[in-house]
Amino acid sequence: MPERNDAALDFFLTRRSRPAKTLTTPVPNREELAPILEAALRTPDHGKLEPWRLVVLEKAALVRLGDLAGERATALGLDEVQTEKGRNQFDNGALAVAVIESPVDSPKVPVIEQTYSAGAVCLALLNAALASGWGANWLTGWPSHDREFLEKGFGLAKHERIAGIIHIGTEKFAPPERPRPNQEEKVTWQSE
């Protein structure tokens, strides 16, 4: 029998993202954030291409990005609700980590597999933050898909994009549990 890690299994069976709007200060300092980042960087990566990178966004950077999201919303002609939604994750945040998908030209590893790896970095980062006792949430939103926002706000190259922005902080209150997928509806078995 393999050796079970019951504490880890229990964590995964009970993990729950914390809504970003409920996160506040304090946030992890650089020393506290380091093992969370290290855990994310251990994500499976077909071909050892490391087709991603992390950008830590402290409060001043989040304010700058919120302002840029507001400017872009105006330029795009977005309504007030869309504008607020685009700004809020930056305006209300105190610390976030952007996971940048940065595909590498490879004859062996298709870009889609590199995209999956970047998504796995997001989940590993989210789970490491939660396991460290912080509240965390994975967001994107329209600014994460606006090319001009990405290039001005993050300096992304044309081939790069945001896989996710993981907000990390202290939760104001624990959210209620939500309904989870029914295993019998989502899992099929093939024996032959």
List strands and helices in order, with pairings.
Blueprint: H1 6-14, E1 23-24, H2 30-41, E2 52-58, H3 59-76, H4 80-91, E3 95-101, H5 111-131, E4 135-139, H6 147-154, E5 161-171, H7 183-186
Antiparallel strand pairs: 1-5, 2-3, 3-5, 4-5
Characterise this structure.
This protein has 192 residues and is of the alpha+beta class. 44% of the residues lie in helices and 17% in strands. It contains seven helices and five strands. It has helices at 6-14, 30-41, 59-76, 80-91, 111-131, 147-154, 183-186, and strands spanning 23-24, 52-58, 95-101, 135-139, 161-171. Strands 1, 2, 3, 4 and 5 form a five-stranded antiparallel sheet that branches. It starts with 5 loop residues before the first helix and ends in a 6-residue tail after the last helix. The model has no long low-confidence stretch (mean pLDDT 96).
Brief digest:
With 192 residues, the chain is of the alpha+beta class. The protein has 7 helices and 5 strands; from the N terminus they run αβαβααβαβαβα. The model has no long low-confidence stretch (mean pLDDT 96).
Strand/helix succession: HEHEHHEHEHEH
* Largest sheet report: 5 strands, antiparallel
- If helices are DSSP runs of H or I spanning 4 or more residues, what is the number of helices? 7
Regions with little confidence, pLDDT below 50 for 5+ residues? none
Helical fraction equals: 40-55%
Question: C-alpha Rg, in Å?
Answer: 18 Å
Mean pLDDT: 96
